[in-house]
Design goal:
It is a single chain. With 105 residues, this protein is mainly beta. It has helices at 44-51, 94-97; strands spanning 2-6, 12-18, 21-26, 34-36, 39-41, 58-63, 67-71. A hairpin with a 5-residue loop joins strand 1 (2-6) and strand 2 (12-18). The protein starts with a strand and ends in an 8-residue tail after the last helix. The model has no long low-confidence stretch (mean pLDDT 76).
């Protein structure tokens, strides 16, 4: 949300309130793949591992808190909060806690 109010000197003061939301579904459909840096990873290998039970599909979702920034203030843009352990791969409870529901196998 952008707000504009008159400043004391007659110039507008522009404020920005924003939030970041992400969502993705990781699945192992063959024929897609990804390039990470100089490495090309075809989805065929994870798809094969999925078929034999070594890999599984999963959802990834997250939202930041609402941040406020005044344009032209010279202040630094607010830094993201430390996410901590919640939701990363080493967190065994992440799927159920994040509303992931049933895991596709």
């Amino acid at each position: 949300m952008v707000t504009v109010i008159p400043g004391a000197d007659g110039k507008p003061v522009v404020g920005l309130d924003y939030q970041v939301n992400v969502w993705d579904r990781y699945n192992w459909d063959e024929g897609k793949g990804v390039t990470i840096g100089k490495f090309e990873i075809p989805d065929g290998e994870p798809a094969r591992q999925h078929k034999v039970g070594l890999a599984q599909e999963f959802n990834m979702a997250g939202s930041s808190s609402v941040k406020h920034y005044e344009l032209g203030s010279g202040a630094a843009v607010p830094a993201p909060e430390e996410p901590g352990r919640a939701g990363e791969r080493s967190d065994p409870g992440r799927h159920a806690r994040d509303g992931g529901g049933d895991v596709d196998r």
